[in-house]
Amino acid sequence: MAKRGIEPVDMTGVMLKIILIAMFFSVDISYVVAELKRRKELRCFAQVGEIHEAQKIYRFLSRFSEEQFYFLSGSGHLTPPIKIGWFHGPKFL
User: Fold this and answer.
1) Which end of the chain, N or C, is more open, meaning fewer C-beta atoms within 10 Å of its C-beta?
2) Helices then strands, each counted (H, E), the chain
3) Strand residues in 1-93 grouped as ranges (E)
4) Once rounded to an integer, what is the mean pLDDT over residues 46-60?
5) What is the helix (H) or strand (E) element at residue 9, kind and residue range?
6) In whole angstroms, what is the distance from residue 81 CA to residue 93 CA?
7) Distance separating alpha carbons of residues 32 and 10, to the nearest angstrom
């Protein structure tokens, strides 16, 4: 991640988990942070130890370009999307 300009790497994993949980459940990052701080079983499930403040996570997220976030979310290393045509078979986009 550091070679893509995503730093600090040690904080990235926990913050990315919180961001992806918020995106998956369509809730604010501040709500996810509050629930993780309040409920130990959620922290164990998400495998996060240190919970950062919501403002720190928002600030962290705002530093990335679209391309960096695409890579950060795990999509950057996958194969290109495939469009399945009705009669023409798969086409790479």
Assistant:
1) C
2) 5, 2
3) 82-85, 89-92
4) 88
5) helix 9-25
6) 6
7) 20
